[in-house]
TrEMBL record:
Transmembrane segments: none
Domain of life: Bacteria
One protein family per Pfam: DUF72
InterPro entries: DUF72, UPF0759_sf
Organism of origin: Amycolatopsis rhabdoformis
Protein name: DUF72 domain-containing protein
SUPFAM superfamilies: TM1631-like
PANTHER family named among the record's database cross-references: UNCHARACTERIZED PROTEIN YECE, UPF0759 PROTEIN YECE
Coiled-coil regions, chain positions: none
Length: 275
């Protein structure tokens, strides 16, 4: 996401060398979703540049590669997983959570496979699972069975909330595309671990997006008061204002939890001027 074209020259300095773009993004937000790792495992050298551009407390939530979760269905993936984890080693503590996004075809009937896979994972890392079969959200027994599987290694259940996006018909090209591509997922406000992860997708209208995140602001305030350390990712269909909205969400929470550390000042887009 740190190379998102609409941000360049508007919210992030442009042009920037590829090895400086994450550094600029990290002055806006202190976490990032690692979606690109789903499509290809980067080289260890590339990952080392990510570490160089971020502070030790920066959070990467990194998606496991597609061959592991979608193509092989979590089975016979030992060498693939080892290659991925080895490539991520330069991040050290920055590798906050490894994100196991499962396909819509993953149903409660496959929980045995998931449980077996989770039990084989190295315990020095933190993991979170995202499911997209609505049975897990609408059937109490299925939800409880998933929670038991996750509890075995203290893994989190990632919520991807698209309720605001689908609350009314699209009003832009980006929203229409999101309607076609994004899953219709319900809102599930429940943390299983000390490190909940939330993915929220709003609308292109910033005010509609902000109105829709109120349940999440309430949840994050409560989690912080309980001593948890949540990570929240805010998206809109075009993501043009996502950085601004992320900081606005943080400000909303910090107004109610004054002890929450402020975010850094964003890197100036252009050179300083006298006037």
């Amino acid at each position: 996401m740190w190379t998102h074209a609409p941000w360049q020259g508007r919210l992030l300095p442009h042009p920037l060398a590829p090895r400086e773009r994450l550094r600029a993004y990290a002055t806006w937000c202190n976490a990032v979703e690692g979606n690109t790792t789903f499509y290809a495992t980067p080289s260890r050298e590339t990952v080392a540049t990510w570490a160089e551009q971020t502070s030790p407390d920066f959070r990467f939530v990194l998606k496991l590669p597609k061959p592991i979760t979608h193509e092989r269905g979590l089975g016979d993936v030992g060498p693939l997983l080892s290659t991925f984890l080895t490539a991520m080693e330069p991040l050290r503590e920055r590798a906050h959570t490894f994100w196991i996004q499962l396909p819509p075809s993953f149903s409660p009937a496959a929980l045995g496979t998931l449980g077996s896979f989770l039990r084989r994972l190295p315990r020095e890392h933190r993991y979170a699972v995202e499911v997209r079969d609505r049975t897990f959200f609408e059937n109490t027994s299925a939800a409880q069975a998933l929670e038991r599987a996750l509890a075995g290694i203290d893994a989190e259940w990632i919520t991807f909330d698209t309720t605001v996006l689908f609350a009314q018909r699209p009003t832009s090209e980006a929203e229409s595309e999101a309607w076609l591509k994004k899953p219709r997922m319900p809102r599930r406000v429940r943390a299983l671990t000390a490190n909940p992860v939330v993915r929220y997708l709003g609308r292109d209208d910033p005010e509609q997006t902000a109105a829709g995140w109120r349940p999440w602001a309430d949840a994050v305030v409560q989690w912080l008061r309980e001593g948890r350390s949540p990570t929240v990712f805010l998206h809109t269909p075009d993501n043009a204002d996502a950085l601004l909205l992320a900081r606005r969400f943080h400000d909303d929470v910090r107004a109610r939890v004054p002890d929450l550390e402020p975010l850094a000042e964003p890197m100036p887009v252009g050179p300083p001027t006298l006037f």
